[in-house]
Amino acid sequence: METTRQLKIARLIQKELAEFLRGNTQITGQGVMISVTQVRISPDLSQARIYISVFPSAKAEETNKNLEDQTKMIRYELGRKIAKQVRIIPELRFYIDDSLDYVARIDELLK
């Protein structure tokens, strides 16, 4: 069960990270659209698990690798945006959220 503080920080990180990724196509790659679907914060607020959805899904692994390579820079930029609201800028971990692909596959199988 997440606390209210964890949920507030998670929403703040999700909003700011989505804006950052939308504006920086050199990180994500040309022709790739990224959505930050969910952010989970550890109870001590030191780590954030960020779930992203990538379109087209064929470039998901490549995009995730690019994000992992740029994690320090992304964390720095995120820190500049949210430094007034939090004491600790959490470590960022990126994960592919493939729930939309799973739903599409199930829908296709049911047809």
What structural keywords apply?
3 strands; alpha+beta; 22% strand; 111 residues; three-stranded mixed beta sheet
Tell me what the structure shows.
- The mean pLDDT is about 90.
- Strands 1-2-3 form a three-stranded mixed sheet.
- With about 110 residues, the protein is of the alpha+beta class.
- The radius of gyration is 15 Å and the shape is globular.
- The longest helix is centred in the first third of the chain and has 20 residues, at about 5-25.
- It has helices at about 5-25, 25-30, 60-70, 70-80, 100-110; strands at about 35-40, 45-55, 90-95.
- Strand 1 and strand 2 form a beta hairpin.
- It contains five helices and three strands, in the order ααββααβα.
Main sheet makeup: 3 strands, mixed
**Radius of gyration based on Cα positions:** 15 Å
Total number of beta strands: 3
Helical run tally: 5
* Alpha carbon gap, first and last residue: 37 Å
General form: globular
Order of adjacent strands in the largest pleated sheet:
1-2-3
| Beta content | 15-25%
Order of helices and strands: HHEEHHEH
The unreliable regions are none
State the secondary-structure class. alpha+beta
Average pLDDT value? Answer: 89
How helical, in percent, are the residues? 40-55%
Concise summary:
With 111 residues, the chain is α+β, with helices and mostly antiparallel strands. The chain has five helices and three strands; from the N terminus they run H-H-E-E-H-H-E-H.
